[in-house]
Design brief:
By secondary structure, the chain is of the alpha+beta class. The protein contains one helix and three strands.
């Protein structure tokens, strides 16, 4: 179910504060975050966030096409190896 429009998109307060400070100063550096549930807003454009997938951090460069999606969508938590079967096929 989608979040109510009157509430607006959810973004972690600490993450938003860090982004706003970086936007004011004009610096660009990687920000590590565990907040996979945060929605990507236009304020995040052009920044690189290291999103935690439960084991390690995945660097995610935020582009215009990502606005409205969640950060967790770009850091996969499962890695598909292969289906069973005879080895060496």
């Amino acid at each position: 179910m989608a979040r109510s429009l009157k509430k607006g998109p959810y973004i972690d307060a600490k993450l938003l504060a860090k982004i706003q400070v970086m936007n004011r100063s004009g610096e660009k550096r990687v920000i590590r975050t565990w907040s996979r549930r945060s929605t990507i807003t236009p304020e995040l454009l052009g920044h690189t966030l290291a999103v935690h997938n439960g084991k390690k951090f995945f660097p995610v460069y935020i582009s215009e096409n990502m606005v409205g999606h969640k950060l967790g969508e770009f850091a996969p938590t499962r890695i598909f190896r292969t289906h069973g079967g005879k080895a060496g096929r």
